[in-house]
Amino acid sequence: MNQYLFGRGRARWLPFLLLIPGLLAYIIIALGPSIATSVFSLTDATGVPNIPVNWIGLENYNEFLFRGLASRDNLDALTRTLIFMIAVTTIQFTLGLVVALLLNQGLKGTRFFRTLFFMPVILGVAIQGLIWSLFLYPQGGPMANFLGLFGVQSEFLGGQPNEAFFWVIFVQIWANMGITMVIFLAGLQTVPAELYEVAQIDGANGWQRFRNVTWPLITPVVNTNLLLNIIGSLQAWQLFLVLTGYKAGTQVLGYLVFAEGFGQTTGSVSSSFRQGYAAAASMVLFALVLLIGLTAQYLLNRREQRLGY
Amino acid sequence: MNTLTTSKDQITPVQSANKRDTRKINWWRIVGYVTLLIFGILYLGPLLMLVSTSLKTLPEFFKSATGLPTSLNLNNFVDAWEQANFARLLINSVIYTAVSTTLYIITAIFVAFPIARGLVRGHKLIFTLFVIALFLPPALIPQFQLILRLGLYNNPVGYILFFLINPIGIIILVGYLRTLPKELDESAAMDGCSYFRFVWQIVIPLARPAIATVVVLHAIGIWNELILPTIYLTSKEYYPVTRGLIVFQGVYGSNWPTLAAAVLILTLPMLILFLFLQRYIISGLTAGAVKG
């Protein structure tokens, strides 16, 4: 602890006293409940107060993973969460990088395009979802007309589960590509221009310059983006709520937790909501995030060290 | 990858650019512009569709969803405004956002400053508590049980509680406050300035860039929050705009012109605000990303 300059005796406690409200709020509202999720996952808690809560051990997990048709649906949701994560991460990462490289070329209108691509992030999930519900209007909407030019027909969000799932991935990427893009742009701006000139003199072509100059030098933002995309897409589900609702064959784990704990589209207090079970489901999601997130972090760190960061 | 090759030609030193090179540069530039344009259509198109639809009558929309409106028809906006009670929704959202952001930022500074300066015992541990928040499981269920037992279900006070915290904001603030020179503390203390007055009158003004970023990010998060009001606010009179919009969609789902007008009314303030606050948002999101 550093030497305290602002008075002695009781005045010494002032920083601590003033820190308490913020810290306490955080522990009571976020940290505590977060940890308590594991405790609730071992009970049969429901969505109403004043009903006795019983310990049922690992029963929720057993049921979630192994019992009956529901568990098969749950495992499907788990697989779907992984597919969603892989699709969103790879596409959003690639598009974000391509767009950032383009916007880093000093083309005209760069600022306009940067603002435009970032805009959905500000609008938030409700407006993003509603805007795309309209754009994907199946009877003669813009996307339906465009695809019609190629003889493709789609019911979009109201179509088959796989079709609806595809379009949610599409909107998810549309909505969040801007974040990936601005982080890449920040990284690209740290690459010194002289290095390109040197590479140019050495006769490196465009791809070689990207591979050997840009790519290694933007390692920190590559890692940040990969981790943010992986963890973000594993936990994302709000667009499903707005675009498709709790539709069979499109559920991901995050939505499953909400649906089991609070109802499918609106929250309410009901004894039919199985919050203990939902807590177990969110622990499964947490395990997934931890496993994949830490593995990714480990691999990325190793790569960073190899490159001398 | 066209885009990558673009960079090659861009960086070609001017001295070596002969006529052939110049033509080539233009060609790759065109590929770059075309790519940007395609993305531009995907990002602007949905907004234009929203505007176009909001100006149509319902029969017009059913006849041709994509066609341009034939006349300037503002009835949809009047309808949407009256039917959805937008004034109420907007006031609610403004209150939730303003009250909780103010409370949050004040408490956050008094958390972040002693951590940045190491003024309290266990400051490293306290900081770690905020950092691990990014990896912890979602707390939805225990939070709900807590609010229910506190009797704060369907209560704006209970709702606001959730926005008094934002670990990322603390991390950004600590990072910034560490860059403030320690000589400040010394000379202020020498002049007999108290701790509270020092933070309030000297640290806060100096940390304005970081505070602005955190305030903007936090406020946008509250304004756009959809899940928490869905869970915790069941009475119409407490709805923020997000929840109001989704409920409105449930009722007017097939009446796209009115719904589009409603969405537009609530999108415009955000868009305008965004144009002004863009740099704070982007600097907040990229803080720390560059250094890893």
Can I get a quick summary?
The complex is a heterodimer of chains A (309) and B (292). Chain A has 309 residues and is mainly α.
What would you say this structure looks like, in words?
The complex is a heterodimer of chains A (309) and B (292). Chain A is mainly α. Chain A contains twelve helices and no strands. In chain A, 71% of the residues lie in helices and 0% in strands. Chain A is globular and about 75 Å long. In chain A, 46% of the residues are buried. Chain B has 292 residues and is mainly alpha-helical. Chain B folds into two domains: 2-54; 77-286, MetI-like (MetI-like fold, Orthogonal Bundle). Helices cover 74% and strands 0% of the residues of chain B. Chain B contains 15 helices and no strands. In chain B, α4 crosses α15, α12 (208-224) runs antiparallel to α15 and α14 packs antiparallel against α15 (256-286). Chain B is globular and about 75 Å long. Chain B starts with a helix and ends in a 6-residue tail after the last helix. In chain B, 41% of the residues are buried. Chains A and B meet through α1, α3, α4, α5 and α6 of A and α1, α2, α5, α6 and α7 of B.
Number of strands of chain B: 0
Report the principal-axis shape of chain B.
globular
* β-strand amount of chain B: under 5%
Largest β sheet strand count, sense and barrel closure of chain A: none
Name the helix and strand elements of chain B from N-terminus to C-terminus, one letter apiece: HHHHHHHHHHHHHHH
**Unreliable stretches of chain B, pLDDT < 50, 5 or more residues?**
1-20
Evaluate the radius of gyration of chain B. Answer: 25 Å
**Level-1 CATH class name of the largest domain in chain B:** Mainly Alpha
CATH class of the largest domain in chain A: Mainly Alpha
Helical content of chain A (DSSP H or I, runs of 4+): over 70%
Overall pLDDT of chain A:
91
* Classification by helices and strands of chain B: mainly alpha
* The CATH superfamily title of the largest domain in chain A: MetI-like
Number of helices of chain A: 12
Indicate the low-confidence ranges of chain A by residue numbers. none
Work out the largest interface and the residue count of each chain.
A-B, 122 and 115 residues
User: How far is it from the N-terminal to the C-terminal residue of chain A, by CA?
Assistant: 30 Å
Task: Provide mean pLDDT of chain B, rounded.
Answer: 87
- Helix and strand string of chain A, N-terminal first? HHHHHHHHHHHH
Number of folding domains of chain A?
2
